[in-house]
Design goal:
With 840 residues, the protein is an alpha+beta fold. The protein has four domains: 1-24 and 40-46 and 235-253 and 265-388, no CATH class; 56-234, no CATH class; 394-516 and 694-840, no CATH class; 517-693, no CATH class. α1 packs across α9 and α7 packs parallel to α20. It starts with a helix and ends with a helix.
Length: 840
Amino acid sequence: MLTVALGTLRVRWVSFLGTVVALVLAVAQLTALGVVLTAVAAPPERPPHRFARAPSVVLPVDPRWDSAQHDLGVRSLPEARGLSRRLLREVSATGTTVVDRAFYAQLANGPVKQVGHPWPVAEFGGYALRDGRAPRTGREIVVAADRARTGETVTVLTAAGPGRYTVVGTVAPASWEDAVFFTADEAERLSPRIDALVALGPAERVRAVVEAGDGDGAGAGAEVLTGAARHRADADAGTDREALDNTLTLLPVMAAVAGTTAVFVVASTFAFAVVQRRREIALLRTVGATGRQVRRMVRAEALLVGCLASALGGALGLLGTRPLTGLLVAMDIAPPWFAVELSARRHVLAPLGAAFLTGVLVAYCGAVAAARRASRVRPVEALREGTVDDTAVTPGRAALGIAGLAGGAGVACWIGLVAPRTVLSPTAYVVSLLVPVVAAAVLAPLTVGPVVRVLTWPLRRLPGPAALLVRQSALTSRRRTAATAAPVLLTVGLALSLLTATDSLGTARDHGFRAGIGAPYAVVPDGTPGFSPSVAARVARVDGVRLAAPVLTTVYLPDGDGRLEENDGLAVHPAALRRTTRLKVVHGSLDDLDEHSMAVADRWHMKVGDRVRVLLADGGEVTLRVAATYAALPGEDVAYLPRRLAGTGLFARDGLVRRASLSLAPGTDRAAALAGVRAVLEGSGARLTTRRGLVAAGAAQARRLTETRQRSTAAIVVLFCFVAILNTLLMAASDRRRDLAVLGMTGATPRQVLHFFVAEALLVTAVGVTLALLAGGINLLGLAAALHQLFGTAPIVVPWATVGAVTAVSGFLAVLGTVLPVATALRRRTRALRQVRHDA
């Protein structure tokens, strides 16, 4: 049967063209995502920058700390404490040792990621003076030549407050860091913690000193880095890790959703191609071909088409890896330096092979599932099977669709009633949205009839036979109608579910954030990561101003298994917290907060009255009583700590205030007080905003990554489905010669024929959109229940403009895919008739 299969492909290549196109796109998509994902999982080692010229570096580390599982800026306890002065003395005994400190230091109007260092470590990063000299006093600095000129007096923002410094020298800009260099004494004043040591003595002796200190505490939590390992001390190591983590989170979601969509569309397309050839299969059965031979022929066709299309798709996917990588970098998901080396076999062979096998398997399974039913036709029924469009659905497909629909409804109910926090995890939630939509596509042949009758019911009384013809054409060819409506269903259903979930979750977060703000004004960073507590103190001294300025830190709490778990903490006055923040208290009361207690999130599983030993980042320890627990979402849970701890040097971050809530005392002149606040904030790296402005800024920052993930996934799926719509309809229209002939014999003009096919395409689109709305409704019901549990009153926000645009494009493609082949056939028939008349 292989010879027959080859002959069929050679003669009926047009019937298989749509299958090949869909399969090529599917394999290309899976190949590109797989290659990029493999490269992200095993990125190339980057050379060290900050300590490239240092023989060895002593860095505080925790060997049990997996930085990939923590947010950027969170440090392990040893990193937060820094290296001990005792270890500094012992390492210094081995040879010359230079202390490095890394801290927040940003020139006014400079980039957010600027960092301060002591000048003595500059040479180990390859810095050299371009002009001027090294700093000698506490008010002198050296900066990159593109930031300021030698001799200028500039404002530098630090955790200690804004300060005026004179630029006494400049260095060449570095691509991996934007540094501001101070004298060693000024750096120590601004940041007492020792972040690293550059040891110029013999590396073996340095390592021996550090390892010998592990037992008595001098070198505990420290490690000696040499060679390529020194990159771990670079300023961009953390941001690179976060970017790669975001990429690793996004790509599997995109691959899972897009892959599932591709698999279904390709399988449906190939099955439809086989259904179009029922007459050929029927004739083979009539001349004596057995069912086994028919199945073997179709399997051979599937393997040939699958191998050809998968090979082309793999090559196209390899070419698409660079544009995909560029897109990830442009969206600020992957780090700027990230690139895929196609010459690296470990990055290419495995995903390319997996995508190729997936393509062949999809083609094979899609063809076999359709051929099995045709091969079971008895020879005496073969001709009838070849001329009648059987609308029955196999029991297996019906069972699969019903199970998928029930499973989708069950998952939606489970998320809405039992596990509402699932909607906050794009990785898990996006995949769950697929189930009802794909299940509805599987059941399309069963549901097409009722949907067509409902949609055409209002058109029964229209004059003329057009509406009746369109209705009956769709009803008598339900398999074709279902196959052409399925891509529209997938496109609109997934766009509706994904985009509505994204916008609704963002709006719900906004409502929750707004409900938690009790002050009409706020002081927020202005082009900076935060502002100094000293600035907040000056604002609080303005007449009539009441300010709550919590300082972000990290505290380390026991997790019950003998280990420490890091958590965000906000050091704030209890009275200010009660006045400006509206927490959903679950147990206890904020009125019980004092200088010896704290409020924690209820998901931390602590009870009111518990006395908890809290480790501070400076190595100190304090025992605090749990005064209240409050409801908080993942990523928004913090411990509210006594303000007195803000002066103990506990900061594991940078000691900056991220946001301060501001209100006015009764009887205060509002205009005068706000003018005084703005005057204080001038040049401080902070600005005054209203509650509405605060909500808008917080919402944009909180939802950026989630929206990027879900919208990127939706874009890939929708684009693939657009191609599938056009592809499937072109295949269907190419099989409509009989309908064209019948309409011509009944006297229909070419214009009327075109109108008929356009109306039928619009009806197919309407069927797909209707089923998409029904399937998407299941997802939206679960989403609404989950958001209600998480945020209380939370509206479902449907982006009607975007969904409407997707629907309009789907309809346009459906009409285009129908009109093009029909118009071509009509032109050929017209030319043939003219030729006959001319010959006569």
